[in-house]
Structure formats: C-alpha cells, structure tokens
Write a structure and sequence with these properties.
It is a single chain. The protein has a single domain, classed as 2-Layer Sandwich (Yope Regulator, Chain: A). It is built from five helices and six strands; from the N terminus they run αββββαββααα.
Length: about 120
Amino acid sequence: MATKQSIVDFILDQLNSFDNMSARKMFGEYALYCDGKVVGLICDDILYIKITDQGKIFVGKYYQEGSPYKGAKPSMMIDYDRIEDSEWLSELVRITADSLPLPKQKITFKKKYDNFH
C-alpha cells in the first residue's frame, strides 16, 4: 500500500518551522529530508524517524521500533498523536538532523574525469 499524499502534506505542515524540510517520493513511499539529510521515511502512511541516541532519549516512553519495509534498518515509529503535536515532532526532527552526518558529496563523471587531467 502506497502512502497517501495527504499524509505527507500533513507531516510537512506539522514541520513548517523548518526552512529546509521536504519529502521525495520513492517507489510509492517517501523519504523525509531536513537540511539535505534523510531523517526519516513515510511508508504505508506511517512516519519512521531514524534512530539516534539523542532521539531515543527525547522520545522516552513513546519509543516504538519498527521497520519501514522488508530489509530496512529499524527506525522509530511515530504514532499519530505524536505527529499531531507539531512542537514535539519538530524537536525530534531537529534532534535527529543534528545527530546525523552531512550527506556524502556525489561525484559526477565530469568531476572524476577532470581529476585525471
């Protein structure tokens, strides 16, 4: 079952305090980006946030682990009540984004070719 666009729109609306928040459709599901970092996935209408030590501490009693798809690393499953709390969700995403490394620079063929000259 693919994620409904309305769910993605609602989650992004809840995270409107971020300037660099976006979602990218991939295979009927969505990757959630903050400042260019993948902080989570939205699969089958469920929000999954990457697990970080700081995020686990913040989530506390709401911590629930699940896998967004077969073969995926476990992530934190965020229930709908937590998604409705915009401040709580924004803080979790901020903590997660701050804990993740910057994405690796993609090397294009032109850059590789230029390095050989």
